[in-house]
């Protein structure tokens, strides 16, 4: 296209406005970090879904999933605070839960290996659940319309 329309014309106009002639190469101002994964897409598939009630495999709490990270997405400080003998692998889905035990309500971040489905018919009582979920006639939880993470 010689008229300057279309994709190539757009690119030429875009770079021309930034003061770099289209025939000069781009120059990196610092080297690439070869250990970093730029625009990487996780291949991990989550076993559990948003709105599902789960319980911890080892500790006495249960909760409802409100967000999923396809692999570890918390801070290194948080990860290192877990005793090494029970520290989960990072290369698996991690779940954000509105969690509860007999004494309190809180938000938990739990690896997939430490969760199991909760088949209890006892409703959850976490105070943030009504803001995010509707309880269905079947006793399951459905994400409210307009709620997105």
Largest sheet features: 5 strands, antiparallel
Q: Strand order across the biggest sheet? A: 4-3-2-1-5
Provide the number of structural domains: 2
How helix-rich are the residues, as a percent range? 10-25%
Cα radius of gyration in angstroms: 23 Å
Q: Specify the structural class.
A: alpha+beta
Number of strands: 7
- What's the mean pLDDT score? 83
Termini gap = 43 Å
Brief account:
The chain has 149 residues and is of the alpha+beta class. It has helices spanning 6-17, 76-80, 129-132; strands at 53-56, 62-69, 94-100, 105-111, 115-117, 133-135, 141-143. A five-stranded antiparallel β-sheet has the order 4-3-2-1-5, with no helix packed on it.
Describe the structure in your own words.
- It is a single chain.
- The chain is an alpha+beta fold.
- It folds into two domains: 1-29, no CATH class; 53-143, no CATH class.
- The protein is 14% helix and 23% strand.
- The protein has helices at 6-17, 76-80, 129-132; strands spanning 53-56, 62-69, 94-100, 105-111, 115-117, 133-135, 141-143.
- The strands form two sheets. The chain has a five-stranded antiparallel β-sheet with strand order 4-3-2-1-5, with no helix packed on it. The chain has a two-stranded antiparallel sheet with strand order 6-7.
- The longest helix is centred in the first third of the chain and has 12 residues, at 6-17.
- The radius of gyration is 23 Å and the shape is extended.
- The protein starts with 5 loop residues before the first helix and ends in a 6-residue tail after the last strand.
- The mean pLDDT is 83.
